Amino acid sequence: MTITSRIRPALNKLPVKMVPATVAVAIAVVLSGCSYDEIARKEPNFDLIEPSQRHPIMVSQQPTRLSVNVPRGSSGLSPKERADILDFAQHFHASDAGDSRLVILAPSGSGNEIAAMQAVQQIRAMLADYGFSDSLISVEAYQADKRAEAPVKVSYMRYVAEGPECGHWTENVAYTPNNLPMPNLGCASQKNLAAMIANPADLIAPRTMTPHSGERRDVVWDKYQKGDTTDSRKSQDATVTTQGN
């Protein structure tokens, strides 16, 4: 719609002498409105109203490592080393986002190479008993440069959340002619969320689903085949009865 078409109906009702002045005023008002819209759209963060958009949380992957010292001639892992590996595996499960693996690095060319390989086999057996599938475990070798003793390294990639930098108070909060959000609005909430979240991988994608309960499924399926009701039985205390007046 052009400017003249928008103001023509109003001009037809005015005296002829008032038409030039009225046209000038109307055009100025319309152009000022257009100018304000253009300025507002060019303001930084004009469309970023949500704090998650104005102050995003950066999520990146960082390695987490565990070194297991295996002396030359040893026959296996010590009880403390077994406990450390199980604790390390629990942390891996807690931070799993479905796209990471547990990597076991065995030394190659070291004086304790035979003992280290025995330790690697024990670690794999422990992880298998803990519920790790072969697809979640990767065994690789690294050059130990003929060291007398080199550790067995266990590692995985975990997600780390980094909050935004706050404290942007360069604008006067008492003067907002464009009614735009302040630069620091919502930054503290985003920074606190990044510091408190238990698993930063939840900010990227949902966690992998755990296996369903096969025992309960077998019970319900058995009832269904017999024609019984598949709902759980309720005790008398869980039922509510009402009586009319």
Produce a short descriptive summary:
The chain is an alpha+beta fold.
Describe this structure in words.
It is a single chain. With 245 residues, this protein is α+β, with helices and mostly antiparallel strands. Among the domains are: 1-33, no CATH class; 62-157, 60s Ribosomal Protein L30, Chain: A. It has 7 helices and 4 strands, in the order αααβαβαββαα. The chain has helices spanning 3-11, 19-42, 51-54, 79-94, 113-130, 187-196, 214-226, and strands at 58-68, 102-108, 137-143, 152-162. Helix 5 (113-130) links the parallel strand 2 (102-108) and strand 3 (137-143). The longest helix is centred in the N-terminal third of the chain and has 24 residues, at 19-42. It is flat, with a radius of gyration of 34 Å. It starts with a helix and ends in a 19-residue tail after the last helix. Residues 29-43 have low confidence and may be disordered.
Strand content: 5-15%
Low-confidence runs of at least 5 consecutive residues: 29-43
The total count of strands amounts to 4
> Average pLDDT across residues?
78
**Element-level helix/strand string:** HHHEHEHEEHH
Strand order, main sheet: write it out: 1-4-2-3
Estimated structural class? alpha+beta
Tally of helical segments: 7
Provide the CATH topology of the domain at 62-157: 60s Ribosomal Protein L30, Chain: A
Relative helix content: 25-40%
For the terminal residues, how far apart are their CA atoms? 70 Å
CATH level-two architecture of the domain at 62-157 = 2-Layer Sandwich
Sketch the major β-sheet: 4 strands, mixed
Quickly name the level 1 CATH class of the domain at 62-157: Alpha Beta
What characteristic shape results from the CA principal axes?
Answer: flat
